From TrEMBL:
PROSITE patterns for this protein: BTB
InterPro entries from the UniProt entry: BTB/POZ_dom, SKP1/BTB/POZ_sf
Protein species of origin: Crassostrea virginica (Eastern oyster)
Designated name of the protein: Speckle-type POZ protein-like isoform X1
Record domain BTB: where: 25-84
Top-rank taxon: Eukaryota
One Pfam family recorded for the sequence: BTB
Length: 234
């Protein structure tokens, strides 16, 4: 993102008022110097963390402006747009990894929305890429999204294991009846796969083996067989 484009986004955020359709905004949250004018009751209703912060015995409960650390203004904007009922922006591929960490941090029901969205992409024909899939799995491990991990492991079992590791083989020529291939490696994808927990890697490998065994039995019996899912690397 260029400096000019970022400045436009931040300028837009600085004037955003999330109180439309609700009682007058009564508190301002400051993230990276950008002010978000919001309503205590709305935040408290959708987040037990905000509820404790704004209505408990913390010093923030009596303040009109609160600085929030450890988050990016652009991400917080997406979180609020997905949280506020009068906006209710759907979680999508562009914002899910921005919304999820904040939803987890503030214990918002949006965690479930993020998990449900990611699960819908764990099937053929959705256009998901290996790189994005691995990003989702890493996030699911970090935030304990068990249902998504289960869906992702089943999906990955139908993807070539070399492809999950960032390796791609392309047929370049055929000489004297022998097909020749060239191998390329997507180092970014390979790095992400190696960052997966050993438990997740093992679960994928185990289900992959079961699928290949079933594939072999069906082929030996001349039954119809299902091929691997073909999805792009990145």
């Amino acid at each position: 993102m260029g400096t000019e484009e970022r400045n436009v986004i931040l300028a837009d955020m600085a004037t955003m008022d999330f109180g439309f359709g609700f009682p007058e905004t009564d508190i301002t949250l400051i993230v990276e110097g950008n002010k978000f004018h919001v309503n205590r009751a709305v935040l408290s209703h959708h987040s037990p963390v905000f509820n404790a912060m704004l209505n408990g015995h913390f010093k923030e409960s009596s303040e009109k402006e609160i600085v929030l650390e450890d988050c990016k203004a652009e991400h917080f904007k997406e979180f609020l747009k997905s949280l506020y009922p009068n906006m209710k922006q759907s979680v999508n591929e562009q914002n899910v990894l921005q919304v999820l960490p904040l939803a987890h941090k503030y214990q918002s029901p949006l965690v479930t929305d993020c998990e449900d969205f990611m699960k819908t992409l764990c099937q053929p024909g959705t256009g998901i890429r290996i790189s994005t899939l691995l990003d989702y799995i890493l996030a699911a491990e970090k935030f304990n999204l068990g249902q998504f991990l289960e869906s992702a492991v089943k999906f990955c079992a139908r993807v070539d294991f070399d492809l999950l590791n960032g390796k791609k083989y392309s047929r370049i020529s055929q000489r004297f009846g022998n097909t020749q291939y060239t191998k390329s490696i997507d180092k970014d994808v390979q790095k992400k796969f190696l960052q997966l927990s050993i438990e997740t890697q093992f679960s994928i490998a185990k289900k992959r083996l079961k699928f290949l065994e079933m594939y072999k039995k069906k082929r030996d019996n001349s039954d119809s067989v299902e091929s691997d899912f073909e999805i792009p690397l990145s």
